[in-house]
Amino acid sequence: MKSEYNKLRKLIERSNNILILTHKGPDFDGFASALILKNFLNVYYPKKNVTFRSRQHPPQKIPFMNEILITQRIDTDKEDLVVIVDAGSWDICITKDDTIQVTKSKVVIIDHHTSKGMEAEVVINDGMSCATEQVLDFCTKVKGKKYVISPDISVLGQVGIVFDTGRFAYNNTKPETYELMAKLRRVFELDLEDFEYKSSKFPVETLLPLSIYIQNMHIIDDMAYSYINRSDIQNLKLTKIGVNSAQQFVRDNIVRYIQGVHWGFVVKPSFTTEGEWKISFRSSQGYQEVASIAEALGGGGHQYSSATRVTADDGDKAVKIVLDTLERLQKKVINETTPQPSSPSQSPLPST
Ligand SMILES: [Mn+2]
């Protein structure tokens, strides 16, 4: 067994109060990996007190979701072990009111993101397709044949994998991912079409901010970007749910689907921290590596999917910060190495 797995196993054995956390605005991989780990601890270490805290529920029904402890503030308490899943550092898990980050307990990270995370007692990240795959690998390696995948765990496993691989379309999908999927589907065959349909639904208040994002779409060469301004939010009384959902829709379904566009970014405001804006970058495979752009702005993520936060007076000002950084990076690349930084670094997809 891997030494990191052994270290985590020993930490679990020594701990009585185990707290599981994931990133803010958890996606299905965050929820699934956390709930699979919680179930594993509950079944194989029944004397341990295990809690999974989140600020919100999953947007559709998944097994064990009633075991999520919904809390708006996450404070340090009696925990002697904190396991963070699907995130590499505190900053994407906490808000300014939380105190959990000053915990005296050991902190373990189980992640799959490629950007460098924080230092922790144990970091488990083999660059798998999703945190769910990494957690299931841990459970299987630690307990061997004794680890039984129940139909509920099978559903969670499939939900995490399908969501984070875009139904096996993204290049994070490895042969091992398919093997694990086969194993899960022998236990229970989740209706993937139905899951996809339900998880793609959006609230009606998405439509108005979506129209603003579409109006504000700008295209520079093979890049597109859009934003929303504070005046739009005030004048049109846009809601947090609506803006977040519209930003997500534009990011995932519009930006790199415009003909001639291969990558871009979308800006949205933070509704909790005044003057903070979140920037999400997306690129088609082989066109623009976006993790380093996010890293240059203090964020991180994957090669073709990354994010960061900037402080600015308004959405268009946040855009300017990003464009200035892009210009700076472009110059740096040209000066230091060979030219054509925005040309495909790998062979582009045949269909694009
Ligand atoms: Mn994930």
What are the SSEs and their pairings?
Blueprint: H1 3-14, E1 17-22, H2 28-44, E2 49-54, E3 68-70, E4 81-85, E5 106-110, E6 122-124, H3 131-143, H4 151-164, H5 175-187, H6 192-200, H7 207-215, E7 218-220, E8 223-226, H8 230-235, H9 240-253, E9 263-269, E10 276-283, H10 291-296, E11 300-301, E12 305-311, H11 315-336
This protein binds manganese (II) ion.
Manganese (II) ion binds at residues 29, 86, 112, 130-131, 164.
Question: How would you characterize this protein structure?
Answer:
- With 352 residues, the chain is of the alpha/beta class.
- Helices cover 38% and strands 17% of the residues.
- It folds into 2 domains: 3-198, inorganic pyrophosphatase (n-terminal core), CATH 3.90.1640.10; 204-336, Diaminopimelate Epimerase, Chain A, domain 1, CATH 3.10.310.30.
- The chain has helices at residues 3-14, 28-44, 131-143, 151-164, 175-187, 192-200, 207-215, 230-235, 240-253, 291-296, 315-336; strands at residues 17-22, 49-54, 68-70, 81-85, 106-110, 122-124, 218-220, 223-226, 263-269, 276-283, 300-301, 305-311.
- The longest helix has 22 residues, at 315-336.
- The radius of gyration is 21 Å and the shape is globular.
- Mean pLDDT is 93; it is low at 337-352.
- Manganese (II) ion binds at residues 29, 86, 112, 130-131, 164.
